[in-house]
Write a structure and sequence with these properties.
The protein is α/β, with parallel strands linked by helices. The chain has one domain: Ureohydrolase domain (Arginase, Chain A), CATH 3.40.800.10. The protein is built from ten helices and eight strands. An eight-stranded parallel sheet has the order 2-1-3-8-7-4-5-6, sandwiched between helices. Helix 1 crosses helix 9, helix 2 runs parallel beside helix 3 and helix 3 runs parallel beside helix 4. Bound molecules: manganese (II) ion (MN). Manganese (II) ion (MN) binds next to loops. InterPro entries: Agmatinase-rel (IPR005925), Ureohydrolase (IPR006035), Ureohydrolase_dom_sf (IPR023696), Ureohydrolase_Mn_BS (IPR020855). Keywords: Hydrolase, Manganese, Metal-binding. Its EC number is 3.5.3.11.
């Protein structure tokens, strides 16, 4: 592989992986390199949560459990930190009291990065943060195909008088014209709904649904093929709510739902999605107070690494890097 001069993970010979301050995957900080293709940012905000709070502590928890992520991805035969410059850009500044002000603050900080050509992988935070991130990404790329892994639809309208909360980001995004309504896909849905009209609303917001039960009835290849067909070749935003996983594999989250998918199923499908034009993404809803032995932190950190790997295999990145960087 051609040496692109990108700075990768901290050298282990100086300090073991368990020592030192934890940037995501022990990657350089944004201020340690000249430019970034992808910035991992933490967004410590959970005031849009409808049930158990605590996702504001997610970014720190995920970083702490990302120390064991390695430089080589064996399935894709690629080095995700070598074919693109990935940095940890720290946390966005965001206050907990005013959801509207917080969303504006996240948008302003995300916009600064996206206008520089840096793609964002955000660590939440609750799912509210997807709305300002979608606004920033759509401003650069136009309407987005959203690939959304979650136990819940998150296309609901108003709750307790709030139109912006962690159950509404994709409804608001559709209303604002940020989504490509022909190319959005939910995966892993199984949460409770009050009325079938919610499913009609969801369809109008541009989504089709692969429920969690489909992982029992279909092969991983079939599911990946359906996803790829639905998303198409335009710009894709990947939003991952850690509650898509079964609570046995990710207990540390705000609105757990039993009957979820496993990390093995999840990664099997994710790894069949190379070639998508991923322009941004998030891993949200990690609430460490409900975690045990770092199980959720590890799942989220590894999920972010899988997503970063896919971002390194996007068509734009492939054309600007060596041919040998391309995985299967
Ligand atoms: Mn969600």
């Amino acid at each position: 592989m051609e040496d692109l001069g990108n700075v990768g993970q901290r050298d282990e010979s100086d300090l073991p992986r368990f020592g030192g301050i934890a940037t995501f995957a022990l990657l350089p900080r944004a201020d340690q390199v000249e430019r970034a293709d992808v910035a991992v940012v933490g967004i410590p905000f959970d005031s849009g949560t409808s049930f158990r709070p605590g996702a504001r502590f997610g970014p720190t928890h995920v970083r702490e459990h990302s120390r064991q992520l390695h430089p080589y991805h064996a399935i894709h035969d690629t080095f995700p930190f070598r074919n693109q410059q990935v940095v940890d850009a720290g946390d966005f500044g965001v206050g907990p009291y005013d959801i509207g002000a917080a969303v504006d603050a996240i948008h302003a900080q995300a916009r600064r990065l996206t206008l520089e050509g840096t793609r964002i992988l955000a660590l939440g935070g609750d799912h509210t943060i997807a709305l300002p991130l979608l606004r920033a990404a759509a401003e650069v790329h136009g309407p987005l195909a959203v690939l959304h892994f979650d136990a819940h639809l998150d296309t609901w309208d108003v709750l307790h008088g709030a139109s912006i909360w962690h159950g509404s980001p994709f409804r608001r995004a559709a209303d604002e014209g940020l989504l490509d309504l022909e190319h959005c896909q939910h995966v892993g849905i199984r949460g409770g709904i009050y009325d079938p009209s919610e499913l009609e609303d969801d369809r109008r917001a541009g989504f089709r649904i692969i429920r969690a039960e489909a992982f029992q009835d279909h092969s991983m290849q079939d599911l990946a093929d359906r996803i790829l067909q639905r998303l198409g070749s335009g710009p894709v935003y990947v939003s991952i709510d850690i509650d898509v996983l079964d609570p046995a594999q990710a207990p540390g989250t705000g609105t757990p739902e039993v009957g979820g998918i496993t990390t093995r199923e999840f990664f099997a499908v994710l790894r069949k999605l190379a070639g998508l034009n991923i322009v941004g993404g998030d891993v949200v809803e990690v609430a460490p107070a409900y975690d045990h032995a770092g199980v959720t932190g590890l799942a989220a950190a590894h999920t972010a690494w899988e997503l970063l790997t896919l971002m390194g295999l996007t068509p734009a990145n492939r054309s600007s890097t060596s041919e040998s960087a391309v995985g299967p």
